[in-house]
Amino acid sequence: MEDKKNKFGFSVSVWIMGLVSFLNDVSTEMINPVLPIFITTVLGAPASVVGLIEGIADATSNFLMALTGIASDKIKKRKPFVISGYGLSTISKIIYSMSYSWPMVLVGRVTNRAGKGVRTTARDALIVEATEKEDRGKSFGLHRMMDNAGAIFGPMLSIGVLGLLNNNYRLMFFWAFIPSALAMLLLVFLKERKKNPGEDEDIHFDWKKTNSSFRIFLFISLIFALASSSYAFLILRAQNLGMSVSLTILAYILFNLSTSLTALPAGLLADKIGPKKIIFSGYLLFALVYFAFGVAKSDWVVWVLFPAYGVYLGMTEGIGKAYISRLIPHEVAASGFGIYQTLLGFTTFFSSFIAGLIWTKFGPSYPFFLSSILALIAALLFLILSKKINIHPQAASVSHLLQKHNL
User: Fold this and answer.
1) In terms of Cα–Cα distance, which of 247, 218, 340 is closest to 34?
2) In angstroms, how far is CA 327 from the centroid of its own chain?
3) d(Cα 51, Cα 46) in Å, to the nearest integer?
4) C or N: which end of the chain has fewer Cβ atoms within 10 Å?
5) What is the DSSP secondary structure assignment for residue 194, as one 8-state letter?
């Protein structure tokens, strides 16, 4: 492990990636909570267009995760993909500021999510390589905590900037470029673990050689992905229940705050008791939250459901990645993450697109009911099949902890 300098138990690389994610999320989350509102109210597009935009953007992101993950493992480099990915996300802020029709928003959203697709698998693999096996849940938890801290400050800035600019959305999108550019400057200080000559040169990702544990978890994740339409529908639902733009953004801040506060404790708990119970509980919480969104009749429930959704996200996002890292060798971690994210991306494309169509044709409650049912099915499958999921031998120390707790 080359990155030996630790600050408060975390490697320098993990801290840098956390700070970069914080700044990039400040920028991105200045835009995200108002983008669905901008599309439907300023540009006059229906909810089905929001679903189409989110679906295409997510599919693009996850498709690129596979390509760049495999490329990252092949050339044994992580940093070039991280820099390119954050660069694309930075450019997207300029595109948003020039959007006068929803197709231009689509271009901006695809560019932004393409950046996420280019950087994510390489970044996650970099974190894996900079972290001891027994600390991966903690490291991914810290990264999610800092990422979501940016998602708290970003919407707060959004409220203030929109007020100063008299609700000029496009000009606010332009100002969101600044923190994203600062994140790019921080990447100059990022160092990645150097590979020794010939190290792992014969190791490559082969689907036919993946173990059953990886395939089982992937199957369950795909079922759950069918439930996971874009959170843009949560924002539209808050508006549908009568909340103002400012109050919707405040509720969105609570969502990100609860995610940030949950991520690190959940990661620490997963390192102690194993991730299976945490992931299962997260699936159940998602099903409950979406069912409640479906039956909601008043806007006051948003103040409860947005933070509850944030708790679900904090329990599953970082831990899910740490869990995947324990099912595959670290030498092909980027490829494994990429395959996982790509298949999920195409599934969530259909989820978001179908949710938008159902919303437009049948009403806002029905997409949430469908998602709740699918999430419950995924949770039950995970409960039944998780006994067949075993940790890869390379993660022996973590496997010992899981066996200790009979998971």
Assistant:
1) 247
2) 20
3) 9
4) N
5) P
Task: Confirm if 173 and 96 have CB atoms less than 8 A apart.
Answer: yes
- Number of other residues whose CB lies within 10 A of the CB of residue 380: 16
Task: Give CA–CA dist 85/63, Å, rounded.
Answer: 14
Q: What is the pLDDT of residues 225-252, one digit of tens each?
A: 899 888 899 999 999 999 988 899 999 9
Nearest to 29, CA basis, from 159, 182, 200, 192: 159
Structure tokens at 349: 């494309």
In this structure, what DSSP letter does residue 298 have?
A: S
- Between the alpha carbon of residue 321 and those of residues 30, 128, 217, 312, the distances in Å are 26, 10, 12, 15
- Tracing tokens 């050689």 back to the chain, one arrives at 209
- Residues counted in the chain: 407
The confidence score (pLDDT) of residue 215 equals: 77
Cα–Cα distance, 188 to 281 (Å, whole number): 39
How far apart CA 227 and CA 378 sit, in angstroms, is 9
Q: Identify the three-state secondary structure at position 43.
A: coil
CA atoms within 13 A on the CB side of 259: 25
Cβ contact 261:142 at 8 Å: no
Residue 378: both structure tokens together: 């995924």
